[in-house]
Automatic annotation (TrEMBL):
The keyword Transmembrane helix applies. This is DoxX. The chain crosses the membrane at residues 78-98, 105-128, 140-164. Keywords: Membrane, Transmembrane, Transmembrane helix.
Length: 175
């Protein structure tokens, strides 16, 4: 009897982590990413930069540069574009279970870089304090913990990765 729970526990853990991520954080990432692309209904601000990004994208990821009124460098343009694309693509990959480990790790890195770039980790207070008004560090840790099972164990059997593994091993997709 102990064999069944032991075999199901990792699969259940990563599946629930992906479902929880899809229910709670996926809308946040998709809406956030779409708000940074110029010309869309959700866009924040006018077009800016070399790529089809809104001014809001630059304010989101380069607040200090924008506050100074300086023109972003080519490297900063590339940073904003890569952060915007990762905000749109990586969450969908995590939910679908495509490249589960690497997409979860890259999304964790994205979360920490975005938080550091915006000063959210430094300027908002201490970790696990009692104030609900500065959730920055707590939020970053919580989001990391939601993604950690997928980063460590992979996307699980109910995923594109799981389907590809079954096909690669010569089993039918339903097994």
């Amino acid at each position: 009897m102990q064999l069944i729970p032991r075999l199901l526990a990792p699969a259940l853990t990563v599946t629930l982590a992906r479902l929880g991520f899809a229910a709670v954080l996926l809308p946040w990432f998709v809406i956030g990413g779409l708000s940074k692309i110029e010309g869309l209904t959700l866009s924040v601000g006018p077009p800016a930069g070399v790529w089809p990004l809104s001014l809001g994208a630059y304010y989101a990821f380069l607040p200090d540069v924008m506050a100074e009124g300086a023109a972003p460098t080519l490297g900063q343009h590339a940073f904003v574009l890569s952060m915007t694309l990762s905000e749109l693509v990586l969450p969908l990959m995590v939910v679908a279970g495509l490249g589960g480990r690497i997409s979860a790790v890259l999304l964790i890195v994205h979360i920490w870089i975005a938080s550091l770039a915006t000063g959210q980790l430094i300027a908002t207070g201490s970790l696990f304090d009692a104030s609900p008004f500065d959730p920055g560090p707590d939020q970053v840790v919580l989001w990391t913990l939601v993604l950690l099972p997928v980063a460590v164990q992979g996307a699980g059997p109910i995923s594109i990765d799981g389907l590809l593994a079954r096909l690669r091993n010569g089993r039918s997709p339903a097994q």
